[in-house]
TrEMBL record:
Presence of the UniProt keyword Transcription in the record: yes
Primary localisation category: nucleus
One Gene Ontology term, aspect cellular component: nucleus
Domain START: 263-498
Organism listed in the record: Gossypium barbadense (Sea Island cotton)
Keywords: Coiled coil, DNA-binding, Homeobox, Nucleus, Transcription, Transcription regulation
Protein's name in the database: Homeobox domain-containing protein
Biased composition annotated in UniProt, kind: Basic residues: 64-73
DNA-binding region residue numbers: 67-126
Pfam families the UniProt entry points to: Homeodomain, PDF2_C, START
Compartment(s) of residence: Nucleus
Family designation: Belongs to the HD-ZIP homeobox family. Class IV subfamily.
Length: 758
């Protein structure tokens, strides 16, 4: 009984301590045997008979205590021989001890005590490493327990919408039997009602029997465990919709995941993957050289792949054959509190709105754990997203992943994503062109109402699917890398701060009108991005026409009932070309309304002027404007142009759309912008990348001559009748407009070479 109590005490002591994530991956190294120093307790032998004298008795008798024998310090030769023998035989018998005593000139008791001490220390080392392992297992069990408690607490009946488990659950056998009986009665009543409405007779015997293929529930009604609950009856022939609305319904459309509604997967396995991914993210965010190599000057950090392979082991499988690795890290100060950023990243809709040019679609498929309170600690959810670069020459990356949030202290959070493969029919194309290794950000609250954000992006992708014009950009990390996420994050929060500012640039427009105008511009930019990347949100049909170049993507779709754009057949055409001028030069030319007549067919060759301008952040180019053409023969035109422009270190955007003057006046007075019909066109500019040295830098200033990549996109209504047939002449007209626009820009900037990077 004493042994059992001691064992239980040791086990409870081990399980009581919480291991930090840095313990994950530590393993016991048996090589410590024979590597101890002399002063570790194995270079000496205690004479326990002399050391364990009755000190108290001698003190009580008034006699001086016996003098303890001094420890005997073994020499290096003796220690080496004892260690060698211990490796072969940790429990020597009497004969072996006498032989060692004779050979090493030691007493037999010294040999005996040395081996006792050695075994004790070895046991202590083993227990210490066992504690580390038990702490890891304890963390996993606690996380899994939290997930189960969250699922039980949030279970909702699919029929009635009330909590499926209204009271605290008791796991006593008697209570479980009562609950089981209650559920059986409920199931029998459901069968009776079902067969009654189906016109069948249900006998008392069949009501108590288990359902067979010809009885009871059959295929019409089945009991299933749903994503949002643990009980409920659903008609097996009805598919339940699963939609997720954005915060502003008029800004972005409803999105549906590609998963089936019922998804079989091992939640405990996802917890293990999330913990391992979090551990890797923290280490990659904290470690420096040699894991991360920094370029010259203020060059970006790139991952040392050889050091990464030595430091980390893959837990999502081997790298697919033919895939290329891209990995970057960036740190910046962002003007917001950490918890606000955590809330944004853990909400799929707000996350997509924060990065509209990078995320064309995002949904939360399942919430495995909502986390602890407002801190979102231990929140874990299953997600699906489409990542894009604004060009028809770069395929969209559709990725299914888990997102895990962990609060490491009062002011530090970490959020990690990692691709998963659920191995079902809906996942046949999983990892088809990309998979995301542990990526995410570490967020630290600072004292000045700023947050320090360290972003890590790590992916593997099929480079053969990418046009050679964009391969240097993607391999350097400027397509999907950490720099682009950080630049977008800073720009968006600067825009938010500008929106909250009471200072308004522009005449005859109030704060409500400014917000309504920015909301309309947000929808315009989002629709432009969706048309360039061919997102699955908008059902585009790709066209293959003989006269259209291979670098031009032409798509079409029909608008039947969306009030946010003209009704009829919409044609989209986009292409990307190399421009041997800098990003800032090209951006300044395209956003200048006085030079617009040199390339824009809507200006009819007339100069244009800005009527209103709402700033969206620092810098003259970050704004939303209303443009108007010069009057012809003294008469004003009723057609205006809504335009949004922005530029940062990782790219630039110019998006515009013709709008009716009366409609825009309603918006500027604070009216609803969701019914303003518009079709966006515009330009996306990505920096050129120098790849002829160890440092890869974007070409965003005047001191480099590599150039930039210009993407041109048009969306045009070719027929106002949705049921009409698309003609080849319409496609050729839009393609001609695309080609002429590029040629006019080239001529205006005196660019004599347009092409692609070899």
């Amino acid at each position: 009984m004493g042994v059992d109590n001691r064992t239980a005490f040791l086990h409870s002591k081990r399980m009581a301590s919480h291991g930090e994530l840095r313990l994950i991956g530590e393993n016991y190294d048996p090589g410590f045997i024979g590597m101890m120093k002399e002063d570790d307790g194995y270079g000496s032998s205690d004479d326990f008979e002399g050391a364990l004298g009755n000190d108290q008795d001698t003190a009580d008798n008034g006699r001086p205590p016996k003098k303890k024998k001094k420890f005997h310090r073994h020499n290096p030769h003796q220690i080496h021989e004892l260690e060698s023998f211990f490796k072969e035989c940790p429990h020597p018998d009497e004969k072996q001890r006498r032989e060692l005593s004779r050979r090493l000139a030691l007493e037999s008791k010294q040999i005996k005590f040395w081996f006792q001490n050695r075994r004790t220390q070895m046991k202590t080392q083993l227990e210490r490493h066992e504690n580390v392992f038990l702490k890891q297992e304890n963390d996993k069990l606690r996380a899994e327990n939290d997930l189960l408690r969250q699922a039980i607490a949030s279970a909702i009946c699919n029929n009635c919408g009330v909590p499926a488990v209204p009271d605290e659950i008791s796991y006593e056998p008697s209570h479980l039997m009562i609950e089981n009986s209650r559920l059986k009665d409920e199931l029998n009543r459901a069968r009776a009602l079902t067969n009654k409405f189906l016109g069948r007779h249900l006998s008392s015997s069949s009501a108590n029997a288990s359902p067979s293929p010809s009885q009871g529930l059959n295929s019409n009604v089945e009991v299933v465990v749903r994503r949002t609950g643990f009980c409920g009856l659903n008609n097996g022939s009805i598919s339940l919709p699963m939609g997720f609305e954005f915060g502003h319904g008029a800004t972005m459309p409803l999105m549906n995941p590609s998963f089936a509604y019922e998804m079989p997967y091992d939640k405990s396995a996802l917890v293990d993957v999330a913990l391992a991914a979090m551990d890797e993210l923290i280490k990659m965010a904290q470690m420096g050289n040699p894991l991360w190599i920094k370029g010259f000057g203020d060059g970006m950090e790139t991952l040392n792949l050889e050091e990464y392979k030595r430091t980390f082991s893959s837990f999502i499988g081997m790298k697919p054959s033919g895939f290329t690795t891209e990995a970057t890290r960036e740190t910046a100060m962002v003007p917001l509190r950490g918890l606000a950023l955590v809330d944004t990243l853990m909400d799929a809709n707000r996350w997509a709105e924060m990065f509209p040019c990078m995320i064309s679609r995002a949904v939360t498929i399942d919430v495995l754990s909502s986390g602890k309170g407002v801190t979102r600690d231990n929140a874990l959810q299953l997600m699906e997203a489409e990542f894009q670069v604004l060009s028809p020459l770069v395929p969209i990356r559709q990725i299914q992943f888990i997102r895990f949030c962990k609060q490491h202290s009062d002011s530090v959070w970490a959020i990690v994503d990692v691709s998963i493969n659920l191995s079902n029919a809906a996942n046949a194309l999983m990892f088809a062109n990309c998979r995301r290794l542990p990526s995410g950000c570490v967020i630290q609250d600072m004292d000045n109402k700023y947050s320090k954000v360290t972003w890590v992006e790590h992916s593997e992708y099929d480079e053969s699917t990418v046009h050679h014009l964009f391969r240097p950009l993607l391999s350097s990390g400027f397509g999907f890398g950490a720099q682009r996420w950080i630049a977008t994050l800073r720009r968006q929060y600067s825009s938010l701060a500008q929106l909250m500012s009471p200072d308004i640039h522009g005449e005859d427009i109030n704060t409500v009108g400014k917000k309504s105008m920015l909301k309309l511009a947000q929808r315009m930019a989002y629709n432009f991005s969706a048309g360039i990347g061919a997102s699955s949100v908008n059902k585009w049909d790709k066209l293959n026409v003989g006269n259209v170049g291979e670098d031009v993507r032409v798509m079409t779709r029909k608008n039947v009932n969306d009030p946010g754009e003209p009704l009829g057949i919409v044609l989209s055409a986009a292409t990307s070309v190399w421009m041997p001028i800098t990003q800032q030069t090209l951006f300044g030319f395209l956003r200048n309304e006085r030079m617009r007549n040199q390339w824009d067919i809507l200006s009819s060759g007339r100069p244009m002027q800005a009527m209103f301008s709402v700033a969206k952040g620092p810098g003259q180019g970050n704004c939303v404007s209303i443009l108007r053409g010069a009057a012809v023969n003294g008469s004003d035109t009723n057609m205006l142009i809504l335009q949004e422009t922005w530029s940062d270190a990782c790219g630039a955007l110019i998006v515009y759309a013709p709008v009716d003057a009366s409609s825009i006046r309603v918006v500027m007075n604070g009216g609803d912008s969701s019914h303003v019909a518009l079709l966006p066109s515009g330009f996306a500019i990505l920096p050129g990348v120098q790849t002829d040295g160890p440092s890869m830098q974007p070409d965003i200033d005047e001191n480099t001559s590599d150039g930039c990549i210009l993407t041109v996109g048009f969306q045009i209504l070719v027929n106002s009748v949705p049921t009409a047939k698309l003609t080849v002449e319409s496609v050729e007209t839009v393609n001609h407009l695309l080609t002429c626009t590029v040629e006019k820009i080239k001529a205006a900037l005196s660019v004599t070479q347009l092409g692609s990077v070899e």
